[in-house]
Specification:
Number of strands: 3
Number of helices: 6
Distance between the termini: 32 Å
CATH class: Mainly Alpha
CATH architecture: Orthogonal Bundle
Helix content: 55-70%
Length: 95
């Protein structure tokens, strides 16, 4: 169940902030480290989790790695959340 990886990845506030930043525009590890005020190795670790959850993609350009947001991980999360919609409607109808 991939949505669980997505939920776990976004549960961490630092990862969520990094993901929000790359949603705005592609960024390098160095840019993200500077903006988040954490070390590049720490950013790389967070990005590894985000990549595993399919929330970011990586593009190499020479020695630099650019990270961009990806919606792939969100698709499965959205599908899972939508499975609960019928429960919400049923509860609303009963109330």
């Amino acid at each position: 169940m991939s949505y669980q990886k997505t939920l776990a990845a976004l549960a961490d506030p630092t990862r969520r902030a990094l993901w929000e930043r790359v949603r705005q525009r592609p960024c390098t590890v160095g840019e993200l480290a500077k903006a988040a005020r954490i070390t590049q190795p720490a950013v790389s670790q967070h990005l590894r989790v985000l990549r595993s959850a399919r929330l970011v993609t990586r593009r190499r350009e020479g020695t630099r790695q650019w990270y961009s947001a990806s919606a792939r991980g969100l698709v499965e999360l959205r599908q899972w959340v939508e499975t609960m919609w019928e429960d919400v409607l049923s509860a609303y109808g009963e109330g």
